[in-house]
Amino acid sequence: MPTTLPTHPLTSTADLDPLLEAIGDARIVLLGEASHGTSEYYTWRTAISKRLIQEKGFRFIAVEGDWPDCFEVNAAIKQDTVSYGTPAKLLQTFNRWPTWMWGNWEIAALVEWMHQHNRQQPQEQRVGFYGLDVYSLWESLQEILHYVEKQGDGAVQAAHKAFQCFEPFGNDPQEYAQAVAYVSQDCEDEVTDMLQALRQQVASHHPQGLPEREQQFNAEQNALVAVNAERYYRAMIQGGSASWNVRDQHMMETLMRLLDLHGPDSKAIIWEHNTHIGDARYTDMPRDGSVNVGQLAREAYGRDQMFAVGFGSYQGTVVAGKKWGATPEKMTVPEAARGSWEHMLHEQLGGQNALLFSEELHGVAALRKPIGHRAIGVVYRPEFERFGNYVPSIVPERYDAFLFIDQTQALHALPTRPDEHTPPDMYPWGE
């Protein structure tokens, strides 16, 4: 006899009312996605985020993107005037593969809305847009150099020393990782010294107001990115979970710093892949010692202070590359594998979209054990999907709610030419 799941209809933004009620007073709301190239994941996350900002006072959106690129967007949307031309032009800052993740028309619409919203708010209350990721080693080093040279103080020497340490590797993180794997010399001490020097500099200044505090935060954050990026690329050669954990721990540290920056009553919205926001302990990730942001946030803040929403679909189209660094393509996402979480929802709902709440799913016997749950990254080969794109998950524990879209469409990517340097591919789903 088929399992009957308690579901709620999802046809318009008004249907999000039960979700807003379930979120309640949570301080951190994590909004996932089952791929980095599906339009509906972005548009529904935008709809939820707008309501969280307008109705519950959430202060910023932090995404699975590089800090310098996202901070450029953050600075632009907090200005009174439109200094960037168009949102599409502003998003050309995302020129590292995969460019479509944040360089797309769906994000352009969000940027425009955030700027219009912010223009109606005092400076201290303007909503931010930040990046949580750790890949931007060279960009962050360059940002630090510009900052310390402008300030003209004691951190200049440490910043130049760190930058010079990486120069022989030609801005290529993979070349650096391979080099330090075979010699004892690396740049760990240099970036650590730079971070300490910047923190001493920040401690000696007392900025007034959020805009000035944010500029100091930006410099220190770029130094933190450099420290953790160096650790990430060094760990990459070791294999296993080491580099994954460096990355997610960095994202969690960045989130905590952002909450501290915005004050004790601030609230955060997180946009990341399901593999980051859904509690790792209820998947097969613990087998190799992997943790993620969803697990770390629950441990740090408690389940009552955070709310994770997973996303998924049955079939449709998606933007992805067939290998790391490849030209992005619009690909067909086949029907979900029989017996999977997505197939179960499709069978029950008959092609309709729905919201599900974990509180109502705990009594479903079929969900007390792991079930295959689709995960598509920036690298995707539909013909091999059944062999590596399903993560065993205890869904009611992994998330607090789930948003299911039966039929999805590919993201609308902007025509941004990618930079020649791409982060190395580390994970089976290209995540």
From TrEMBL:
Gene3D superfamilies named in the record: Biosynthetic Protein domain (1.20.1440.30), EreA-like (biosynthetic domain) (3.40.1660.10), EreA-like, domain 2 (3.30.1870.10)
Pfam families: Erythro_esteras (PF05139)
Domain of life: Bacteria
The name this protein goes by in its record: Erythromycin esterase family protein
Species in which this protein is naturally found: Hymenobacter guriensis
